[in-house]
Amino acid sequence: MASPSATRNMLHSYGKRSIYVSFAAAVITTVAFNAFYVWPRHNKYEQFFATYDPYTRMKEICAANKGYMHTCPKELAKLYEKKGKAVAEH
């Protein structure tokens, strides 16, 4: 019997190798993306929100002159008065 040709099943062997390499690359890049991008950002957000007080921040925003937030209670009261609408009665 003759020995098999060197090119026999060459397409299949290259295909299998390519599938294994691409699967390994996909797993490695996914882990690297999570380890170096997602987890550090997640930890920074965790640290930020552990000490964040939204009420203090709202006071800081509204304490500025007109401020950059037009929905502060003082600004809304001024807008209602300009339009002639009654603001909450005390």
Please provide a written account of the structure.
Pathway: Energy metabolism; oxidative phosphorylation. It holds the Pfam family COX6C. It is a single chain. With 90 residues, the protein is mostly helical. It has two domains: 43 residues; 38 residues, no CATH class. The chain has three helices and no strands. The radius of gyration is 32 Å and the shape is rod-shaped. The mean pLDDT is 83.
Question: Would you kindly provide a brief summary of this structure?
Answer:
The chain is mainly alpha-helical and 90 residues long. The protein is 70% helix and 0% strand.
Question: Any descriptors?
Answer:
90 residues; mainly alpha; 2 domains; 3 helices; 70% helix; 0% strand; rod-shaped; Cytochrome_c_oxidase_VIc_sf; mitochondrion inner membrane; mitochondrion; transmembrane helix; Cytochrome_c_oxidase_VIc/VIIs
Rg (CA only)? 32 Å
Silhouette: rod-shaped
Distance between the termini: 105 Å
Helix count, per DSSP? 3
Helix content: over 70%
Structural class: mainly alpha
Tell how many strands the DSSP assignment holds. 0
Order of helices and strands: HHH
Mean of pLDDT: 83
Which spans have pLDDT < 50 for at least 5 consecutive residues? none
* Beta-strand content bin: under 5%
Number of domain units: 2
Biggest sheet record: none
Secondary-structure map:
Elements (H helix, E strand, L loop, with lengths): L9 H42 L2 H10 L9 H11 L7
